């Protein structure tokens, strides 16, 4: 999480909007919230966390509230936790200045690229096409004109970005 946050940091300034795909326990959503909506700052950003496992969404909401943060329908909330298919992002709140993906996609999801702001950055693990079964972190940048630049950063091993359990 620290490496991803550092990579996205210039897009995590007060007032910016962030999508966290595969938000799991809600830990990173809390970190992102403190960066885009620091207390006492009038520029309040927004964090949207999405996970396809309802129990994880419920757990993340509980964890964030234990940290004293307002979530979903709490008055003044700047964090929204959603149960859904993160591979499709959450277009209702797009565009996002930053997108973090916490599970490996088989290919770079175009829906997520489309939801990046101009400018914006995505940090995403993607299966390598080199046939050895590995994965790499990709930094996907969209400039102010909407041009997309993709850069492979390093090899990793993440859980796969999957369908919701039946």
UniProtKB/TrEMBL annotation:
Entry's family note: Belongs to the methyltransferase superfamily. L-isoaspartyl/D-aspartyl protein methyltransferase family.
InterPro entries the UniProt entry points to: PCMT, SAM-dependent_MTases_sf
Protein source organism: Tulasnella calospora MUT 4182
GO cellular component: cytoplasm
Keyword Cytoplasm: yes
Entry's EC annotation: 2.1.1.77
Domain of life, source organism: Eukaryota
Protein location: Cytoplasm
Pfam families attached to this UniProt entry: PCMT
Keyword annotations of the record: Cytoplasm, Methyltransferase, S-adenosyl-L-methionine, Transferase
A GO molecular-function descriptor: protein-L-isoaspartate (D-aspartate) O-methyltransferase activity
Single Gene Ontology BP annotation: methylation
UniProt protein name: protein-L-isoaspartate(D-aspartate) O-methyltransferase
Primary localization class, coarse: cytoplasm
């Amino acid at each position: 999480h620290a490496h991803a946050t550092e990579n996205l940091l210039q897009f995590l300034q007060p007032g910016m909007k962030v999508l966290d795909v595969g938000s799991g326990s809600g830990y990173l959503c809390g970190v992102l919230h403190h960066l885009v909506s620091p207390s006492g700052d009038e520029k309040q950003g927004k964090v949207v966390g999405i996970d396809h496992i309802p129990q994880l969404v419920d757990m993340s909401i509980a964890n964030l509230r234990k940290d004293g943060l307002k979530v979903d329908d709490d008055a003044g909330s700047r964090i929204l936790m959603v149960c859904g298919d993160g591979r499709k992002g959450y277009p209702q709140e797009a565009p996002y200045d930053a997108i973090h993906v916490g599970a490996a996609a088989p290919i770079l999801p175009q829906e997520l690229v489309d939801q990046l702001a101009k400018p914006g950055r995505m940090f995403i693990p993607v299966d390598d096409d080199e046939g050895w079964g590995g994965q790499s972190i990709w930094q996907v940048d969209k400039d102010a004109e909407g041009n997309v630049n993709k850069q492979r950063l390093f090899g990793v091993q993440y859980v796969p970005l999957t369908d919701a359990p039946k």
